[in-house]
Design a protein that fits this description.
Layout: H1 3-26, E1 33-35, E2 38-40, E3 42-44, E4 50-52, E5 68-69, E6 84-85, E7 99-100, E8 132-133, H2 137-147, H3 152-157, E9 167-168, E10 175-176, E11 182-190, E12 193-199, E13 204-211, E14 215-216, E15 221-222, E16 228-235, E17 242-250, E18 257-263, E19 271-277, E20 281-287, E21 295-304, E22 307-310, E23 314-317, E24 323-330, E25 337-345, E26 352-358, E27 366-372, E28 376-382, E29 390-399, E30 402-405, E31 409-412, E32 419-426, E33 433-441, E34 448-454, E35 463-469, E36 473-479, E37 487-496, E38 499-502, E39 506-509, E40 516-523, E41 530-538, E42 545-551, E43 559-565, E44 569-575, E45 583-592, E46 595-598, E47 602-605, E48 612-619, E49 626-634, E50 641-647, E51 657-663, E52 667-673, E53 683-690, E54 693-696
Parallel strand pairs: 6-7
Antiparallel strand pairs: 1-2, 3-4, 5-14, 8-15, 9-10, 11-12, 12-13, 16-17, 17-20, 18-19, 18-21, 21-22, 21-23, 24-25, 25-28, 26-27, 26-29, 29-30, 29-31, 32-33, 33-36, 34-35, 34-37, 37-38, 37-39, 40-41, 41-44, 42-43, 42-45, 45-46, 45-47, 48-49, 49-52, 50-51, 50-53, 53-54
């Protein structure tokens, strides 16, 4: 640094010290201060603090003054008639006097946000006169309580004559609630917002918070106060070091220097570490030169220009990790054992004693605890083990200084009896079935798996089948050489080197067989019915229901009749509702609980029936001709020859003449009657003829 730089540096320091001391030593509350060409008075509030007698920008006591965005200096944006912009500032000083409108979260005039702009008399953007600052939220709350402020009327009547100056909207810049509500900023940030005081005609809210782009009134408070700090628990304790922790809950308006003090006697703190200057929140610094087994007493300390404050005292003991050895595992069973260890040194603090284990060397997934204890052997139960399994074990000891482990040992659990459940028998036939079971536990060794059965309960001498050796899960084997329609009793069986176990007993009955039947030719065939015949040659062990089925398409049987339940031998039932001259296909059918069997298909044809017809009125009557009309109402199974007979004598058709409409099916028909005598009465009737015979209308 050259001579000129030295002179400039000394001048700046002297100027600042002179200004600081002039404000601190010479100022008397009630005096005036100036800033930006405006003169402000000062007044002592009910809280005993010195405040400006008016809002910043107010020309008189009780005047409304300016509306600031939180954290901004008095750069002219605070004038309620200032212009606006929606361009956010990237620095603490936007470089213009426009009100910055914020239209999206976090609704701040600055991006990114910055919270340390208005803290203390030397705050970066402190808009107050020299020696004054913006009050904290807690200072506002104290003033409001001490002044008895409950609404805008009591605020205006207080020593500070606080007006309802309204606010300026953060997103539109419009001014609102002037004369109705008062909105006053504090210097205290809250998350992405900042605290403010809201005073309405009926209420006061000393701890509201809102968006920082909002325009609100500023009332300044004199100087700074001592900070407030709490002592937090010491962390990261080793044999020689630890981390001391504190939390600044109030800076007093001026960020303090933060310390942790400690010593070996309560109330005496000959050692300290420095966490530097900082604002509200937690801080830490390293405590060194500690000794094992020693109790230390600790407190937080903070210092600003208003003075020094301390947190309450806490204490801690320096300890080292314990030492432990692993002993042989004892009392080993198929599912448990006793783990053993020995504490050879506690490290100055009785440790928690554990045994850890797992099925892979070096990996310990389970543990048991013997609680806290001193030096000497300890034990705890190793449980929930699997049979015939090798486990790896180590001792573990933990105190406040850390954790130590013993060496690894191993042991193998015993084989246990398997467990098996008998499942329902499946695939039951007349002579066989499938036996089913489930191995739910192998006992640590895969067992031989079997099914036993017999014809008496709890007696399984008839037979057995094996599913060979296997693990947990279901298994099956075939039960053979069974008798039809017989009740059997079965159970599962599983055997390993530890012994044999059985499942519970189940029972089943073999099936009956399906019956056998043959189809016999139908008899008594008419135009609309016949008698169907069948023969039961074997009932299958249960008398079947006996049927005859039929239909007009081969192997398609749409109707049936029943002869009821019966044993072996012939049976018959009536085949009805048939149509004349139709070929029908028929078969015998027999059904019991085992199933249904059918005879082979036979066919028969119903007889042809006489056709039927009706006579309709004669039409198209001329002098010598006319049209005779009839309707075939049934063909009788064979299309008839269709006629019209006519004569001059009623009911005398022996010599009648006739005309023909040819062969046809059901429906109307006509033919022409000729050689008629003019003006003569004729008698007419329809006539139809097929191979079965002739009928008349």
């Amino acid at each position: 640094m050259n001579k000129i730089q030295n002179i400039i540096f000394i001048f700046i320091v002297l100027f600042l010290l002179g200004s600081y001391h002039a404000v601190r030593a010479d100022f008397v509350c009630g005096s005036t201060v100036t800033r930006g060409g405006l003169t402000y008075g000062s007044v002592t509030g009910a809280d005993g603090k010195c405040w400006l007698d008016r809002n910043l920008g107010a020309l008189a006591v009780s005047g409304n003054g300016w509306l600031f965005q939180w954290g901004r200096s008095d750069d002219n944006h605070q004038v309620t008639s200032s212009g606006t912009t929606t361009t956010l500032s990237g620095t603490n000083t936007p470089g213009h006097g426009l009100f910055i409108k914020a239209t999206s979260s976090p609704y701040d005039w600055r991006s990114p946000q910055y919270a340390n702009l208005w803290q203390g008399t030397y705050g970066i953007n402190n808009p107050c006169p020299a020696g004054f600052r913006i009050p904290t939220q807690s200072e506002w709350a104290t003033l409001i309580s001490a002044s008895g402020i409950t609404n805008t009327a009591t605020a205006a009547a207080s020593a500070l004559k606080i007006p309802a100056a309204g606010a300026r909207a953060y997103d539109t810049a419009s001014v609102y609630f002037v004369g109705g509500n008062g909105y006053y900023w504090s210097s205290t940030p809250y998350s992405i917002y900042a605290y403010f005081v809201q005073i309405t005609g009926t209420s006061v809210f000393p701890a509201n918070y809102t968006n920082r782009a909002q325009g609100e009134s500023v009332r300044c408070i004199k100087g700074i106060t001592t900070p407030v700090v709490t002592t937090d628990a010491v962390t990261s304790i080793t044999s020689t070091t630890a981390v001391g922790n504190g939390t600044v809950t109030d800076t007093g308006g001026n960020n303090p220097t933060r310390y942790i003090e400690w010593g070996t006697t309560s109330g005496s703190y000959p050692n300290s570490c420095n966490a530097g200057i900082g604002g509200m929140g937690a801080y830490s610094c390293s405590m060194t030169g500690l000794s094992v087994g020693t109790t230390y007493y600790v407190r937080a300390k903070v210092v600003n220009t208003a003075g020094t404050t301390y947190g309450s005292e806490t204490s801690f003991v320096v300890v080292v990790a314990p030492t432990v050895t692993t002993q042989s595992t004892t009392s080993i069973t198929s599912t448990g054992a006793i783990g053993n260890g020995t504490i050879t040194a506690t490290g100055g603090n009785n440790p928690t004693r554990d045994i850890e284990w797992g099925t892979t060397s070096g990996i310990y997934t389970n543990s048991c605890t013997a609680g806290t204890g001193s030096t000497g052997p300890y034990s705890c139960s190793i449980t929930s083990l699997s049979p015939n399994t090798t486990y790896y074990v180590r001792a573990k000891a933990t105190n406040s200084a850390g954790t130590s482990y013993g060496g690894e040992t191993s042991f193998t659990t015993l084989v246990a009896l398997p467990t098996v459940t008998t499942q329902s028998t499946s695939n039951i036939t007349i002579s066989s079935a499938t036996g089913n079971a489930t191995i739910t536990y192998t006992g640590g060794e895969n067992p031989t798996r079997e099914i036993e059965w017999g014809t008496e309960t709890n007696v399984y001498t008839t037979g057995s089948c094996s599913a060979s050796v296997g693990g947990t899960g279901t298994y099956s084997c075939n039960l053979t050489n069974l008798q039809p329609n017989t009740q059997y009793f079965a159970r599962a069986k599983a055997t390993n080197s530890a012994g044999t176990t059985y499942g519970e007993e189940t029972q089943f009955t073999t099936l009956i067989d399906t019956p056998d039947t043959t189809t016999v030719a139908p008899s008594v065939i008419t135009t609309s019915s016949a008698i169907g015949h069948g023969t039961i040659t074997d009932t299958g062990g249960e008398n079947p229901e006996r049927f005859i089925e039929w239909g007009t398409v081969s192997e398609t049987y749409t109707d049936s009749c029943t002869a009821g339940t019966g044993g072996t031998g012939d049976y018959a039932c009536d085949i009805t509702n048939l149509n004349p001259n139709i070929t029908y296909y028929t078969r015998a059918k027999a059904t019991n609980s085992a199933g249904t069997s059918y005879g082979s298909e036979l066919s028969f044809t119903t007889l042809v029936a006489n056709p039927t017809a009706t006579t309709q009125a004669t039409t198209i009557i001329q002098t010598t001709t006319a049209q005779g009309n009839g309707t075939v109402t049934a063909t009788g199974g064979e299309n008839p020859e269709r006629f019209i007979q006519y004569t001059t004598t009623s009911n005398d058709y022996d010599t009648a003449e006739e005309c023909t409409a040819g062969t046809g099916s059901t429906g109307q028909y006509s033919c022409t009657m000729t050689n008629l005598t003019p003006n003569t009465q004729y008698f007419v009737r329809a006539k139809v003829t097929n191979s079965s015979g002739t009928t008349y209308g």
